[in-house]
Amino acid sequence: MTKLAELKREWMKEPDFRAEYEGLEGEFAVIRDLIDARTRAGLTQKELAVRMGTTQSAVARMEGGGVNPSIGALRRYAEATGTRLKVTLEQAR
After folding, report:
1. Which tens digit of pLDDT belongs to each residue from 73-82?
2. Burial level of 69, CB count in 10 A (0-12/13-18/19+)?
């Protein structure tokens, strides 16, 4: 197990950390979906950026969680990867 995985395992034992981490699950899921769509399309970040009409660094920020992309940016991302954007709201637990 990597040191990072060990550290995360230890931190997850703390209730406050666990609650904050689990609260970000929706954001992590979006990031995973973005990266998966790009990978399935066989595109690099730079190639995707060209298709979107933006920069590689903008794509990296989207995929790294460094920005909260607009619906329009997510739509352009989807179109550039040959996917479609679907936004849903679910009942809170």
Report:
1. 999 999 999 9
2. middle
Per-state percent for the chain, helix, strand, coil, to nearest 5: 65, 0, 35
Q: How far is it, in rounded angstroms, from Cα 13 to Cα 10? A: 6
- Asked if 59 and 69 touch (Cβ cutoff 8 Å), the reply is no
**Spatial separation of the C-alpha atoms in residues 9 and 37, rounded to whole Å:** 28
Q: pTM of the full predicted structure?
A: 0.80
For 38, residues 6+ apart whose C-beta sits below 8 A from its C-beta are 45, 48, 59, 63, 81
Can you state the angle between helices 56-64 and 71-80, rounded to 10 degrees?
110
